[in-house]
Design brief:
It is built from 2 helices and 2 strands. With 85 residues, the chain is α+β, with helices and mostly antiparallel strands. It is flat. The termini are far apart.
């Protein structure tokens, strides 16, 4: 059985409706691509303030964990933060 827990972090400010639409699309992708049973797919979304994105997300979760990242814009992070900024 496939029971995915999908965690998404994004800049704050999006509507609940847009986040729910995104979560439904991600859930459907887990069903279609991974073969997961929809009743066991969990999608969590966490708003992150842009002011703390670099330290809390970009550096701590992206740069420091390259073995976990499957898709990443390796040249520049949000707001023009280069990898070595």
């Amino acid at each position: 059985m496939i029971i995915p827990y999908i965690s998404v972090k994004l800049f704050s400010g999006r509507s609940r409706e847009s986040k729910e639409s995104f979560a439904l699309a991600v859930r459907q992708a887990a069903i279609d691509i991974l073969g997961a049973d929809g009743q066991y797919v969990t999608v969590a979304m966490q708003d992150v303030e842009p002011a703390v994105w670099k330290d809390q997300v970009y550096t701590a979760e992206i740069v420091d964990n390259p073995h976990l990242i499957l898709r990443h814009n390796a040249i520049v992070s949000p707001a023009g933060m280069k990898k070595d900024d």
